Amino acid sequence: VSVFKKSTPGALPKAKRRSFVPNLIIFVLFPAFGIAVWLAIQPLKDIPATPAPDAAADNALAAYLRDAAASNPGAWSTNEAAVNRFLAANINLQPVENKLGINASFERAFVRFGNGSADFTMQLRLFDRDLFFRLRLAPEKTADGLVLKPVGAWVGDLPIYPALAPLVMPVFQPCAVALMDVFDITSTASSAEISPSKIVVKWSAGASR
């Protein structure tokens, strides 16, 4: 008498059918989670040097922006290095206590200009590792004025799915608040163009300020 029970070809025992899907999910999700963590903790490969403080240049940048906005018409232009120097001097965020006991400190913020957009990056120190939160911004004219619209987000080298991008936006909020007093006036501009070498913001004649 055979000790093996003949099974129907192509059919799995019920116990195996019940465990197949959870096992498949674990098999797929665990490596995917590991890859996501590995990508998120990767340092950026192209990081600008930390600029030396230059209060006179920073004051000139802000004054030039105000004068351009007050002109009729007006234009304001600056390069990546000047913006990064301004960010280094004007963004200094303090760590916030949290119930989880996670000690994250703000290191700095910097930008990289591209064709039609700019990457704004926050560098945070978590335990003994640097984390980079990057937001790609593109100028867009709306009914509420000129805005910088988020068109992409990354943590390290890990791209954030567009539907999940709002979840990382609060990370950038303290930086936006710190810069609001100086750059809020750009919302009244008629256009802005970003290239790898510079950003140009223009106000048309007769535009309300």
Task: Summarize the helices and strands and which ones pair or pack.
Elements: H1 14-40, H2 55-70, E1 74-78, H3 80-90, E2 104-113, E3 118-126, E4 129-142, E5 145-155, E6 158-159, H4 169-183, E7 191-194, E8 199-203
Antiparallel strand pairs: 1-8, 2-3, 3-4, 4-5, 5-6, 7-8
Helix pairs in contact: 2-3
Structural commentary:
This protein is of the alpha+beta class and 209 residues long. 33% of the residues lie in helices and 29% in strands. The chain has a five-stranded antiparallel sheet. It has a three-stranded antiparallel sheet with strand order 1-8-7. Strand 2 (104-113) and strand 3 (118-126) form a beta hairpin. The longest helix has 27 residues, at 14-40. The relative contact order is 0.15. Mean pLDDT is 78; it is low at 1-7 and 24-36.
How many strand segments?
A: 8
Low-confidence stretches: 1-7, 24-36
The helix/strand class is: alpha+beta
Helicity range:
25-40%
Strand order of the largest sheet: 2-3-4-5-6
The gross shape turns out to be globular
Largest sheet features: 5 strands, antiparallel
Strand content: 25-35%
Key descriptive features of the protein:
209 residues, alpha+beta, five-stranded antiparallel beta sheet, three-stranded antiparallel beta sheet, 4 helices, globular, disordered N terminus
